[in-house]
Design a protein that fits this description.
- With 157 residues, this protein is mainly α.
- The chain has one domain (12-147).
- The chain has helices spanning 6-32, 39-58, 66-82, 96-114, 117-140, and strands at 86-88, 91-94.
- Strands 1-2 form a two-stranded antiparallel sheet.
- Helix 2 packs antiparallel against helix 3 (66-82).
- The chain starts with 5 loop residues before the first helix and ends in a 17-residue tail after the last helix.
- It is a multi-pass membrane protein.
């Protein structure tokens, strides 16, 4: 056992780097769209989630259960996501997609921390496709632009 346990934890360092890369990719895509939650937030969420999963995997003992800490990450990120959603009366104005992006970034970090790179790559690609295809549909008028939804006045107001 050396000072930093380099050999023993070398495979875990790669997981943290992959989580960092995923956070950067997701954050850049969101920043390019002018969203207020960009690179830093997505990197920190994805990396932090990965770190929690790595920590839970390193936990030894009779009560070792990596999913216990993972469940706490999901609960915590839900709280953060709720903070980016803006409402006006009974309508959600914006932030729902940002909250969903933070949530899935957190989940990606957990999956990467667990070592399931293939699942993370497929999920990341599907996430990117979903965002791009929905933007295309909105621009073409196939689906309504989310910025125009919920702006109708309700009767009796």
């Amino acid at each position: 056992m050396g000072f930093l346990f380099v050999q023993e934890h070398a495979h875990l360092y790669g997981r943290l780097v992959v989580a960092f890369i995923f956070g950067v990719i997701i954050g850049i895509e969101r920043a390019k769209q002018g969203k207020f939650v960009g690179v830093r937030t997505h990197v920190l969420v994805c990396l932090g989630s990965c770190l929690v999963m790595v920590l839970s995997l390193l936990n030894e003992g009779p009560y070792r259960d990596p999913m216990r800490l993972a469940a706490q990450v999901v609960s915590g990120i839900t709280f953060i996501g709720a903070g980016v959603i803006w409402r006006d009366r009974n309508n959600v104005k914006h932030g729902l997609t940002t909250a969903a992006n933070l949530w899935i970034s957190s989940c990606l970090g957990l999956v990467i921390g667990y070592g399931l790179y293939d699942i993370a790559i497929i999920t990341g690609v599907l996430m990117f496709i979903t965002i791009r295809v929905s933007m295309y549909f909105e621009k073409k008028g196939i689906v309504p632009d989310k910025s125009t939804l919920g702006n109708e006045e309700e009767e009796g107001d």
